[in-house]
Amino acid sequence: MDLRNIAIIAHVDHGKTTLVDELLKQSGTYRENQATTERAMDSNDLERERGITILAKATSVEWKGIRINIVDTPGHADFGGEVERILSMVDGVVLLVDAAEGPMPQTKFVTSKALALGLRPIVVLNKVDKPDAEPDRALDECFDLFANLGADDDQLDFPVLYASGRNGWADTELDGPRENLDALFDLVVKHVPAPKQIADRDKPFRMLATTLGADPFIGRILTGRVESGTLKAGQTVQALSRDGEKIEQFRATKILAFRGLSQQPIDLAEAGDIVTIAGMAKATVADTICDTSVTEAIPAQPIDPPTITVTFGINDSPLAGRDGKKVQSRVIRERLMKEAETNVAIKVTDTPGGEAFEVAGRGELQMGVLIENMRREGFELSISRPQVLFQDIDGVQHEPIEEVTIDVDDDYSGVVIEKLTSTRKGDLAEMKPAGAGKTRIIAYVPSRGLIGYHGEFLTDTRGTGVMNRVFHEWAPFKGPIPGRRAGVLISMESGVSVAYALWKLEDRGKFFIGAQEQVYQGMILGEHSRENDLEINPLKGKQLTNVRASGTDEAVRLTTPITLSLEQAIAYIDNDELVEVTPSAIRMRKRFLDPHERKRASRAAG
C-alpha cells in the first residue's frame, strides 16, 4: 500500500487532538456502531485533565487506497524530547494555527525542528469560524515565522487551508463549502512525498528507535520508522548504539503496526512504515535495530540538554508513611530510572548518601507531570525548589534564556514589563497591540527569573494574562535575581489546627490551610505579610471561664485558604524549603523542622 507519514504541530489548545478525532471519523476508521471518545489520542489521564498532549502518539487512516500515518506531537516545549525524536519518522508536517492567536512560542519551537530537517509544511488555519478570528493576519505571521526560522524557498511556498476542527471541515478558500475534511486528506496525499525508504526495500533491514514503551503482555517495545529492508516476525536482529557498538542480538518476537487507534500484529514490516518491535532486553531510544550484517548505526537527532534540576527525596516529615505505600528511597530510585529510560529529556543522578536524587529536565511543567504521576502511583516524596543548570562555554558561565510571549490587557502591560525587565533581568524584544484591548509582549528572560513568577503574573494581571515560554538560547550569567519577597508562617506546634487560632492570626498573612487540618512543627501554614519568617501556634484554643454573658461571643469566620497546585507549590518554595507530596496531600515545610537547626543552618549560610 502507498504510504504517507505526517506529524501535526500545534500550540497548546489550538485544536490539534480534536482535528485528529475528525480525521479518524471521516476516514472510516470507526465502525458505524463503535463507541468513540472525545480527544481519542489523549490516552493519558493527565492529558485529558489538563487538555495538553504530553506523549507523542501515532495513528493511521486510509484514504483512497493510501495509508496515512499521523503522529500527534506534544504542544509544550517541556516535552520537546518527544518532538525531536518523532519528527525523524515523518516526511511532512501539518502546522495547525489558531486563526485568532496566530503562531505561538511552542509552535515556533517544534516548527524550527521540522524546518531544520527539511520538511515542507502545510499550514491549516483552525477556528476560522470564531468571531475574533483574523486568518489573514495569522497567515502573514506564519510566513514571517518561517522566514525568521531560515526556511528555504520550497518551505516558504506552503499551501494553506482554512478549517474548523471541531466542526470537521477544511477548505482551500475561506468562504468554501465547509462540508468535510476531504481537502486536507487530498492535500496531504499530493503535497507530502511518499517515504523515500520504500526504494530501499531490497537492502538489509535498519530502523532507528524513536520511542520506548512497555507492554504488560509482550514486555519492552521500541517504535520507529523502517529505514530500509523488511523484517519478518521471529527474525533475529541486533541493536547498535549511536557509536556503532553492538548492544545485543535478539529475536523480534512481535511486530505491531498502527491501524486506526490500535496496534495490530503484522507478519512483515516494510521500509517506510512506522512499526513497533518487541523482544529486546537492553536496546533503547536512539539505538539502531538492524540486520545482523549491518555495521553502521543510523545518525540520531541530537537532543537539547536539560535546563533545570529538582531534588527528589524520601518524605521524612512527621506525617510520612500515613498516605502512600511507596516511601523507600530504593523504590523511588527504581521509578526515576525507569522514567529516564523512556524519556530521554530527563537525566537522573544519585546524591551523596543515596537518600535523594537529582532529576534534570526541560521545565517546571515536565517535572510537575512526573511528580503527579508518581503520587498517583502511591509514592511519597519531598521535592526541592527547581535550580537552573548552567553551562561553561569558552570559560564563561552561561545560563538558559527563555522567550516569553505574553498577551495581557493594556492596563496591566506596564507592571508586567517592569517585573520582567528590571526585577527579573529580562530584555524586551517586541511589544505590539494584539486587538480587543490587549497587548502582546515578547521578552527574553533568564529561566531563573521565571521560576515562581507565574503566580505573581496572574495576580498582577487579575487573572486575565496568558503567558507562554520556550527555550531561546544560552547567554552569559546576568547576575543575582531576587527571590520571593514575602516570608512564611511556620507552625511551632504539632497537632490539629484550630479555627479560633487561625482567625486570630489572619492579620499576620494569608493561609494555605484551614481549620481541623493536621499540622506539624516546621510546616509552612501561610505567607507572612512581611519579609521575615514568623513562627505561629495554630493550635491555641479560646481560654474558657465559668462566666459567660449572653451575646458577647464573636463568630469565627475564616477567610478561604489559598490552595496551591503542585507546580505552584514547587515554584513558591525558597531554597531552604521543601514540598511534601503524598497521594492525597501537598504540603510545604522548612528543610529543617527543628527551630534550633533552622537557626544554625541560616547562620552557616551567612
Automatic annotation (TrEMBL):
<dbReference type="InterPro" id="IPR027417">
    <property type="entry name" value="P-loop_NTPase"/>
</dbReference>
<dbReference type="InterPro" id="IPR006298">
    <property type="entry name" value="BipA"/>
</dbReference>
<dbReference type="Pfam" id="PF00009">
    <property type="entry name" value="GTP_EFTU"/>
</dbReference>
<dbReference type="Pfam" id="PF00679">
    <property type="entry name" value="EFG_C"/>
</dbReference>
<dbReference type="InterPro" id="IPR047042">
    <property type="entry name" value="BipA_II"/>
</dbReference>
<dbReference type="GO" id="GO:0003924">
    <property type="term" value="F:GTPase activity"/>
</dbReference>
<feature type="domain" description="Tr-type G">
    <location>
        <begin position="1"/>
        <end position="196"/>
    </location>
</feature>
<dbReference type="GO" id="GO:0005829">
    <property type="term" value="C:cytosol"/>
</dbReference>
<dbReference type="InterPro" id="IPR009000">
    <property type="entry name" value="Transl_B-barrel_sf"/>
</dbReference>
<keyword id="KW-0963">Cytoplasm</keyword>
<dbReference type="GO" id="GO:0097216">
    <property type="term" value="F:guanosine tetraphosphate binding"/>
</dbReference>
<dbReference type="Pfam" id="PF21018">
    <property type="entry name" value="BipA_C"/>
</dbReference>
<keyword id="KW-0699">rRNA-binding</keyword>
<comment type="similarity">
    <text>Belongs to the TRAFAC class translation factor GTPase superfamily. Classic translation factor GTPase family. BipA subfamily.</text>
</comment>
<dbReference type="InterPro" id="IPR048876">
    <property type="entry name" value="BipA_C"/>
</dbReference>
<dbReference type="InterPro" id="IPR031157">
    <property type="entry name" value="G_TR_CS"/>
</dbReference>
<keyword id="KW-0690">Ribosome biogenesis</keyword>
<dbReference type="GO" id="GO:0043022">
    <property type="term" value="F:ribosome binding"/>
</dbReference>
<dbReference type="InterPro" id="IPR005225">
    <property type="entry name" value="Small_GTP-bd"/>
</dbReference>
<dbReference type="InterPro" id="IPR035647">
    <property type="entry name" value="EFG_III/V"/>
</dbReference>
<keyword id="KW-0342">GTP-binding</keyword>
<dbReference type="InterPro" id="IPR000640">
    <property type="entry name" value="EFG_V-like"/>
</dbReference>
<keyword id="KW-0820">tRNA-binding</keyword>
<dbReference type="GO" id="GO:0019843">
    <property type="term" value="F:rRNA binding"/>
</dbReference>
<keyword id="KW-0378">Hydrolase</keyword>
<dbReference type="Pfam" id="PF03144">
    <property type="entry name" value="GTP_EFTU_D2"/>
</dbReference>
<dbReference type="GO" id="GO:1990904">
    <property type="term" value="C:ribonucleoprotein complex"/>
</dbReference>
<dbReference type="InterPro" id="IPR047041">
    <property type="entry name" value="BipA_GTP-bd_dom"/>
</dbReference>
<dbReference type="GO" id="GO:0000049">
    <property type="term" value="F:tRNA binding"/>
</dbReference>
<feature type="binding site">
    <location>
        <begin position="13"/>
        <end position="18"/>
    </location>
    <ligand>
        <name>GTP</name>
    </ligand>
</feature>
<comment type="subunit">
    <text>Monomer.</text>
</comment>
<dbReference type="InterPro" id="IPR004161">
    <property type="entry name" value="EFTu-like_2"/>
</dbReference>
<dbReference type="GO" id="GO:0000027">
    <property type="term" value="P:ribosomal large subunit assembly"/>
</dbReference>
<comment type="function">
    <text>A 50S ribosomal subunit assembly protein with GTPase activity, required for 50S subunit assembly at low temperatures, may also play a role in translation. Binds GTP and analogs. Binds the 70S ribosome between the 30S and 50S subunits, in a similar position as ribosome-bound EF-G; it contacts a number of ribosomal proteins, both rRNAs and the A-site tRNA.</text>
</comment>
<dbReference type="InterPro" id="IPR047043">
    <property type="entry name" value="BipA_III"/>
</dbReference>
<dbReference type="InterPro" id="IPR042116">
    <property type="entry name" value="TypA/BipA_C"/>
</dbReference>
<keyword id="KW-0694">RNA-binding</keyword>
<keyword id="KW-0547">Nucleotide-binding</keyword>
<dbReference type="InterPro" id="IPR000795">
    <property type="entry name" value="T_Tr_GTP-bd_dom"/>
</dbReference>
<dbReference type="GO" id="GO:0005525">
    <property type="term" value="F:GTP binding"/>
</dbReference>
<dbReference type="InterPro" id="IPR035651">
    <property type="entry name" value="BipA_V"/>
</dbReference>
<feature type="binding site">
    <location>
        <begin position="126"/>
        <end position="129"/>
    </location>
    <ligand>
        <name>GTP</name>
    </ligand>
</feature>
